[in-house]
Amino acid sequence: MNKSILITGANSGLGKDTARQxxxxxxxxxxxxxxxxxxxxxxxxADLEKTTGRSIFEIIIMDVSNPDSVRLAVAELKEPIDALIxxxxxxxxxSPMEVTSDGxxxxxxxxxxxxxxxxxxLLKEKKLNKVALYAGSEGARGVEDMGMNxxxxxxxxxxxxxxxxxGTFFDEKTDPMEAYGYIKYIxxxxxxxxxxxxxxxxxxxMSPGFTSGTAVxxxxxxxxxxxxxxxxxxxxxPLKGLVHKLEKGAKRFVDGISDDSFKSGVFYxxxxxxxxxxxxxxxTIFPDLNNxxxxxxxxxxxxxxxx
Length: 307
What we know:
Distance between the termini: 35 Å
Number of domains: 1
Strand order of the largest sheet: 3-2-1-4-5-6-7-8
Oligomer: single chain
Structural class: alpha/beta
Radius of gyration: 18 Å
CATH topology: Rossmann fold
CATH architecture: 3-Layer(aba) Sandwich
CATH superfamily: NAD(P)-binding Rossmann-like Domain
């Protein structure tokens, strides 16, 4: 079992419930709640202590969209952790395709840039002992019922991945949901690349599935937010069996770091045309995920934007 775990985006939704479930495991000795908002983090910590009956939660201030914030947080981490859960993310706010000072879209910054820096720094400082899990998405392989097409690249070169990261791959009419799928695809490739470079660790990508009770849709544009939160999630998705409760999404993360049958370098998510239920190796659906050249090209493209 993992005695110490760090979870990003841990003050609400999947991150918080993952912390709750892990806190109920007696072998868990320390859970770091990595959050960007201290007030919300303190409220989450108090609630988790109440619901688990344990005082094992410690707050780390970290904004994963800001690499400097991530580096500072890692430097302040006094002891190595056994497990890392990279859960924080979102739809990039009101301007998801706007380019940040790091040269990446806000959407990419919110979901991946800081997590790459986080793992780089933990590895460099020898502060990760066993396992890391990145919160993936079925959007990385395409979700027809959600209007998300499978990522379609012409060459899958490092240059082409870099264009996805800085937004120049897309045009002004591109739906941020489509760009989100591409980013989650790049993330899965990155994790597989890192898994080959770090055979002493278990590095996996795990989708929580389409999960109710999360905050990921809160920063969508108004019309799309209304559609997802008040039509798709509560009405359409349940009728099609495409959504499950928060606890089940978080359980995927708990199982991912705890169960060694989930193999390093693999992206696990729902079966074809599903967003819930059993998870499988997504390369059996989308073989490009298992291409080592694509994996390394994605990794190299990301690191072009890390100073």
